[in-house]
Amino acid sequence: MSTVSVLNIKNEKVGEIDLNEKIFDLDVKEHLLHDVVRYQRAARRAGTASTKTRVEVRGGGAKPWRQKGTGRARAGTRTSPLWRGGGVTFGPKPRDYAFKLNRKVKKLAVAMAVSARFQEGNLMVLDAFSMDAIKTKDFMSIMNTLDVDNCLLVTTSDNEIVAKSARNVNGVKVMTADGLNVYDILLHKKLILVQPVIESLEERLLV
C-alpha cells in the first residue's frame, strides 16, 4: 500500500490515507494512454464539414452552349467541378470520427493516468473543498495557499459554487469523479482529489 498525506484547504496536514496499488501505483504504458486520448479527441470531433457534389449544386439543366462551332471546349453542365461555382469532387461530408475501444482498456488507462500523477508527486488529496459563495477571488486564494496554478480538481458530486468560482480561472478545471478521464488528467499538471473521490474511483475502476 502507498500512503499519501491528506491536507485541508489551508494546506495543513490533517491525516494520511492508504492508496490501492492497483489504481495508484501501476506501470504506466504511454502507448495505451495515447490510444485513449486519440479515442476521446476523435469522439469530440464535430465532423460537420460538408460540400456539394455536382448533383447537389443548383442549376446545370441546360447545356451552356452547343457542342460544335463555338471554338470553345465542350461543356455539358454548369455544375461541373471544373467550373467556378460547380460541385466539389471528393469533398468532405458529415461523418463520425469515433472508433471503438474496449471498456477494460479505458478503465486501465484512467488508472494509469492517475498513477502517473502520483508517481510524479503531482497528486494531492484534500479532506474537503467547500466555499460559502461563488467568488473567483476566494477560489484563487485557496489555490495560492495550496501553491497550485494548473490543476484538475475532482469532487464527489456537482458543487456549483466551486465549479462557477473556478470556471474563469485559466489552467484550472473542476469535475466530478464520474467524469474523470485520461485526457483531462494529462492536460493538467496537478491532480487534486477530494478524499471521498478515492473510494468512488476504487468502485469504478476495480470492477
Automatic annotation (TrEMBL):
Q: Which Gene3D superfamilies match?
A: 3.40.1370.10
Q: Where is this region: Disordered?
A: 49-78
Mind giving the lineage of the organism this protein is from? Answer: Bacteria, Pseudomonadati, Thermodesulfobacteriota, Desulfobulbia, Desulfobulbales
UniProt xrefs under SUPFAM superfamilies: Ribosomal protein L4 (SSF52166)
Q: Which organism is it from?
A: Candidatus Desulfatifera sulfidica
Provide the function of this protein: Forms part of the polypeptide exit tunnel.
Its quaternary structure? Part of the 50S ribosomal subunit.
Among HAMAP family, the record links this protein to:
Ribosomal_uL4_B
Look up the record and report any one GO term of the cellular component aspect: ribosome
Similarity annotation: Belongs to the universal ribosomal protein uL4 family.
- Record keywords: Ribonucleoprotein, Ribosomal protein, RNA-binding, rRNA-binding
Protein name (record):
Large ribosomal subunit protein uL4
Q: Does the keyword Ion transport apply?
A: no
InterPro entries in the record, alphabetically? Ribosomal_uL4 (IPR002136), Ribosomal_uL4-like (IPR013005), Ribosomal_uL4_dom_sf (IPR023574)
Swiss-Prot/TrEMBL GO biological process terms: translation
MF terms per GO, please? rRNA binding; structural constituent of ribosome
